[in-house]
Amino acid sequence: MKYLDKKEFDKANKFGTGNPNDAFAKYFVGNSFLNPLTNPKDTAVFLANVTFEPGCRNNWHIHHAKSGGGQLLICTAGEGWYQEEGKDAVELKEGSVITIPPEVKHWHGAKKDSWFSHIAVEVPGEETSNEWCEEVSDEEYNKLEEK
C-alpha cells in the first residue's frame, strides 16, 4: 500500500522510523532514517528498520564477503524498488522479501509517491565489507515509474 501521508505511514510502520540516517546520508538521494533492532555487541546478526521518504533511494552498492555475507530485505510498510545491475527493477510491497547475494551490485529505495520501510539484515560472513558506488540518477529512477 502506498503512503504519502506520513501520519498514516507511521501507523503501518510497526518497527519505527528511528533517527535520521546522518552517518550514511552521503550514500542516499533524499532522506532516510535508521532504527536498529539488534545490538551488534549482543548478536552476530544485525537488523535495522530503514525508512525512506518518497523518492529516496540509496546509491548502487555491493556487499563483499570472502564467504557468507550478503543482505536480506524484509519489506514492512509502503512501496519501493530493488534493482540489481543489468536487471529490471523489482517492485517492493509489504511482505516482499529480497535475498541479495554477496558481490551483487544493487540499490533499493522508496517509490516517488510512497514512504517505504524495510528491515535490512546483514548476513554474517567472513571478511565482509560494503562498497558504495554511484548514485541512481534521476533519469534512471524516473523511468521506473513509467512501467
Automatic annotation (TrEMBL):
Q: Where is the signal peptide?
A: none
Q: Where does the record place the Cupin type-2 domain?
A: 50-113
Coiled-coil regions, chain positions: none
InterPro entries per the record? Answer: Cupin_2, HNL-like_cupin, RmlC-like_jellyroll, RmlC_Cupin_sf
- Residue spans of biased composition, Acidic residues class: 128-139
Q: Which domain of life is it from?
A: Bacteria
Q: Give positions of region: Disordered.
A: 128-147
Pfam families named among the record's database cross-references: Cupin_2 (PF07883)
Name-wise, this protein is: Cupin domain-containing protein
Q: Which organism is it from?
A: Ruminococcus bovis
- Phylogenetic placement of the source organism: Bacteria, Bacillati, Bacillota, Clostridia, Eubacteriales
